[in-house]
Amino acid sequence: MAPSHAGNGKDSGTARVLGSGASGVAELVVFHPVDTVAKRLMSNKSKGYKVAQRIYKFGGQPWFNDIISRHYKDDFTRLFGERKGKMLIQAAAGSLTGIGEVVLLPLDALKIKRQVNPEAFRGRGVVRIFMEEGTTLYRGWGWTMARNAPGSFALFGASAATKEYVLGVSDYSKATWTQNFIASVAGAVASITIAAPLDTVKTRIQNANFEQKVPGLTVIRDLVRNEGPLAFFKGLTPKILVVGPKLVFSYTLAQSLIPMFSKYV
User: Fold this and answer.
1) Whole-angstrom Cα distance, residue 214 to residue 108?
2) Which residue, 27, 88, 215, 256, has fewest beta-carbon neighbours within 10 Å?
3) Phi-psi region for residue 123, left (φ > 0), alpha (ψ -120 to 50) or beta?
4) Quick check: 149 and 98 in contact, CB under 8 A?
């Protein structure tokens, strides 16, 4: 089932893994220099993080969608009506997927620290860092879940709403590439914008050295005091312009590939 499928469970788990995994690999190929792709995939410092993230997010959301539909579809339909209920199931499944994405936090933390705080890696390999730091790599896990829940809700919810109300697509798995692309743009922009404030807090927590423990509330207090409330949305436009196309590309591809793979596996 595609990431925005209505939840009839017709697509196999294999198709979901293949489709979402292929979208992650394609994202690396398209958005990074071709001669560095193999190194990125094989590097101990960033081994498959992006691919793992896409497999989990775009392959996992349909699984949560199936569970919610199987047990709570009648409740959603009774409370919100058939069309809105279907979209909210998509969004709720996305939210649960986002919360569970915290399992990948250590890889995300290492990626961010390597980009903005390379001295934290000086003289130490990734395996050694995992051995020495342990649970500190999960620092900011609560803020990560708080960011991912509304962000993923918006990603899958806005995409489903766009298909349903703007494009007139009721069976999301039958959307064309163009329809998937338009819906992905809406979902990506909504997701990045809604998640921006908590993403700022999460990133500042993870930017610190391994030895430093910076509470999220301290980050928020200092941010408001020193930079003002608008600082929570600092860098939003560049993020939409830089991160947005990657998310749109991989999400569009996953939504299109998963139904295609389901015909064969």
Assistant:
1) 17
2) 215
3) left
4) yes
